[in-house]
Design a protein that fits this description.
The protein is an all-alpha fold. The chain folds into 2 domains: 86 residues, no CATH class; 169 residues, Orthogonal Bundle (Farnesyl Diphosphate Synthase). 62% of the residues lie in helices and 0% in strands. Helix 11 crosses helix 12. The N and C termini lie far apart (59 Å).
Length: 281
């Protein structure tokens, strides 16, 4: 019997079952959901490679490059999520660029452990987060006028996730997304993430990042009214509400002491509010 081919895709063990936001929920058009899920699996599996602490940076990049090759049509069965994504792109005629953009972000994760300032972090989000929203918008045939607000929403979600995982990223991967300039202005270093709870200085850094993220969420509120597809418009509205609620949770909680996360009541309230807002378009 021939052994199954080894796969380059590997789970990282990092919060795989702790997603904050719906991915291809029933709000999305039924025929498009498999393609949304294909993109999510592709991005999630690539992210898992970058976050796998057992792999060297060189090995991570080799595996991500292999996913890119399979995405572009190279033969082989060693990257099933990439192969499925290629079939999805062929079926939908959506550009492969969004997939290559997220792979670029995960290659950065393999080698880049620190971010100098907010602009540096937003440059990362351009590749790690924005392509996710753009993929969904292109899949629904939305106009590109939706991109700026979508980019703002996706970047906000990315920063909120970074703040949730700041201690885990630091301890497991020595990766810190909190800008060094902000930490330096507070006269602290990345070691503050290992203290068990946020110091007053680190709390000021976190609050400053949340202030900038709140501005992104404010910009993202412009997205649902300009999305034409009813289901996607509704899902965008719900996600904006969830982002705002997670931001409030992080303002009131200490992500250094414990992982701050959304509660069931947040999902219910965001769904009701999001649906109501989307129908008032």
């Amino acid at each position: 019997m021939t052994a199954a081919p080894a796969t380059v895709e590997t789970p990282s063990g990092k919060w795989r079952n702790a997603e904050n936001f719906p991915v291809g929920s029933w709000l999305i058009r039924h025929d498009l959901r498999p393609h949304v899920h294909a993109f999510y699996r592709f991005a999630r599996n690539a992210d898992d490679i970058a976050d796998n602490s057992a792999l060297t940076a060189e090995e991570k990049i080799r595996r991500l490059d292999r996913m890119a090759a399979i995405l572009d049509g190279a033969p082989g069965d060693d990257a099933p999520a990439a192969a499925a994504m290629r079939q999805s792109l062929i079926a939908t005629q959506v550009t492969e660029q969004h997939c290559h953009d997220v792979l670029h972000a995960f290659r950065l994760d393999a080698v880049k452990l620190r971010y100098e300032d907010w602009d540096d972090l937003m440059g990362y989000c351009r590749y790690s987060a924005s392509p996710v929203g753009r993929q969904l918008l292109d899949l629904h045939g939305e106009r590109r006028v939706t991109w700026p607000a979508s980019d703002a929403l996706c970047s906000a979600l990315q920063v909120l996730n970074h703040l949730q995982d700041c201690v885990d990223d630091y301890r497991r991967l020595d990766r810190v997304y909190l800008p060094l300039k902000d930490l330096g202005a507070a006269r602290i270093g990345v070691e503050a993430l290992g203290a068990g709870k946020a110091s007053p200085e680190l709390r000021r850094v976190l609050d400053g990042l949340l202030d900038r993220t709140a501005a992104l969420i404010s910009q993202a509120r412009n997205l649902p009214p300009i999305v034409a597809a009813p289901g996607l418009r509704c899902e965008c509205s719900v996600i904006v509400e969830l982002a705002a609620r997670l931001l409030r949770r992080l303002r009131g909680g200490d992500p250094v002491a414990e992982r701050v996360k959304l509660q069931r009541s947040d999902f219910f309230a965001a769904f009701v509010s999001g649906v109501f807002r989307s129908r008032g378009r």
